[in-house]
C-alpha cells in the first residue's frame, strides 16, 4: 500500500470539518428549539444527519459538544456584529435589537441557563459572554459614531444594549413586534439626544456625522 498523500488527506479533513460544523449548527438549533434538557447528543446527531458514534468521535461527551457550541455561538454573534454596515443611527439601533431577538441570541440564552446548572459549561460561558459583550459595546460605539469621553454617552450605549437584551428575553415568550417597534423608536430618540447634545446640555452642531 502506498503512502497517504496530502491530496488523499484533504478530502477526509474536509469531510471531518463539515461533520463537525453540522454538529455545532445542530446543537445550536436544538438549544434554541428544545432547551438544554431536550438537547442530548443523540438528538443533535440525528438532526445533523450523523450517527451517535460519529458525533462522539468529534465530541466524546455532551459537555464537550456544548462547550464547543458555546464557542461557535459566540463567534457567530461576533461575526454578525462585525457585518453590520455603517448607516444612520435609527438603523443601527434597530439592527442591534434584531441581533438580540434572533436565533443566535435565543441559543445563547439557553446556554446561559444550562451554564447556571452545569459547572463544566459555566466558566466557559461566562468568559465568552464577557468577550462578546465587550465587542458588542465597542462595535455599537463605532457604528453610532459615539464619543464616550462625554458625560452620559457610555451609559446611554450600555442602556441601549441592556434594552435590546431585555427585548430578546421578552421575545422568548411572545413576538410583540408592534410594541418592540415603538420601544426601538423611543430609544432611537434617546440615543440621538444623548449623542447630539453637548456636555452642558445644549444641542451640538455636527457636520459629516451619521
Task: Please tally the helical runs, counting DSSP H or I stretches of 4 or more residues.
Answer: 9
| Order of H and E elements | HHHHHHHHH
Helix content: over 70%
Looking at how many chains there are and whether they match, the oligomeric state comes to single chain
Number of strands: 0
The radius of gyration over CA amounts to 21 Å
Termini gap: 65 Å
Structural class estimated from helices and strands: mainly alpha
Mean pLDDT comes to 81
Largest sheet: none
**Strand percent estimate:** under 5%
- Identify low-pLDDT runs: 198-210
Overall shape: it is: elongated
Describe the structure.
The chain is mainly α and 210 residues long. The protein is 74% helix and 0% strand. It has nine helices and no strands. The protein has helices spanning 6-34, 41-48, 52-58, 62-82, 89-100, 103-117, 119-143, 153-170, 177-196. The longest helix is centred in the N-terminal third of the chain and has 29 residues, at 6-34. It starts with 5 loop residues before the first helix and ends in a 14-residue tail after the last helix.
List the helices and strands and how they pair.
Elements lengths: L5 H29 L6 H8 L3 H7 L3 H21 L6 H12 L2 H15 L1 H25 L9 H18 L6 H20 L14
Helix pairs in contact: 1-2, 1-4, 1-6, 2-3, 4-6, 4-7, 5-8, 5-9, 6-7, 7-8, 8-9
Keywords: DNA-binding
Protein name: TetR family transcriptional regulator
Pfam family, one: TetR_N
Amino acid at each position: 500500500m502506498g503512502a497517504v498523500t496530502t491530496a488523499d488527506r484533504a478530502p477526509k479533513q474536509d469531510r471531518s470539518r463539515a461533520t463537525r460544523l453540522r454538529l455545532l449548527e445542530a446543537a445550536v438549533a436544538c438549544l434554541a428549539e428544545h432547551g438544554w434538557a431536550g438537547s442530548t447528543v443523540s438528538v443533535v446527531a440525528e438532526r445533523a444527519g450523523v450517527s451517535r458514534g460519529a458525533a462522539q468521535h468529534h465530541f466524546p461527551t455532551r459537555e464537550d459538544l456544548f462547550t464547543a457550541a458555546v464557542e461557535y455561538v459566540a463567534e457567530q454573534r461576533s461575526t454578525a456584529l462585525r457585518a453590520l454596515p455603517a448607516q444612520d443611527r435609527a438603523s443601527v439601533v434597530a439592527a442591534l435589537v434584531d441581533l438580540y431577538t434572533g436565533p443566535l441570541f435565543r441559543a445563547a440564552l439557553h446556554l446561559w441557563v444550562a451554564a447556571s446548572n452545569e459547572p463544566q459549561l459555566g466558566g466557559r460561558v461566562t468568559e465568552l459572554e464577557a468577550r462578546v459583550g465587550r465587542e458588542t459595546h465597542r462595535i455599537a460605539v463605532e457604528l453610532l459614531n459615539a464619543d464616550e469621553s462625554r458625560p452620559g454617552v457610555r451609559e446611554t450605549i450600555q442602556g441601549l444594549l441592556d434594552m435590546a437584551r431585555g427585548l430578546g428575553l421578552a421575545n422568548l415568550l411572545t413576538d410583540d413586534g408592534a410594541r418592540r417597534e415603538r420601544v426601538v423608536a423611543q430609544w432611537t430618540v434617546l440615543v440621538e439626544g444623548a449623542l447630539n447634545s453637548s456636555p452642558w446640555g445644549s444641542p451640538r452642531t455636527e457636520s459629516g456625522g451619521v
